[in-house]
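Sample entry (172 residues):
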Amino acid sequence: MNVEKRVLYVKAGKKGTTEIVDAIAARVKEDGLSSVIVASTSGKAAIRIGEALKGAAEIVSVTEFTYSDDIKKAMKKLKIAPIEKAVLPIQDRPAMREALLMFGSGVKAALDVIAVAAEKELTHDRVIGVAGSERGLDTALVVRPSPPSEFSNPDPEKRMAVLEVVAMPLKG
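Predicted structure, serialized as tokens:
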């Protein structure tokens, strides 16, 4: 059996956001993925994804900060679940953080917010994690989620795993 999936390489930051949103919408439609977890400091990226998906998947938006009242209203209208004041578990594990940063800040951020959503039981068996850099989206991964307490579980099926790379920023 030959399986061919393509990785979308985009410019880092804002320049890749439109392509990332389109890739996420296509992946949700193609693969029946029902959850998208977004690292979104201001909430605007999550709203953009919510508008593109039009209810085709549950969306969770995670930030270390708080969202404005206007952003919260827009999220509620689009049925986006906000998680504010999140403590990012990978950020506090230096070896893990540094290893993931070799793939880019978006990979680390996407896995961080998936762990936060999994801890709050807002994930399914496979999710798309989305993050970026420079105030834009440039990374999308299909992931088997797990909460931080399972990161080192001896059973590999209970640990978080990156199943597919949908998109990453082009380096160099």
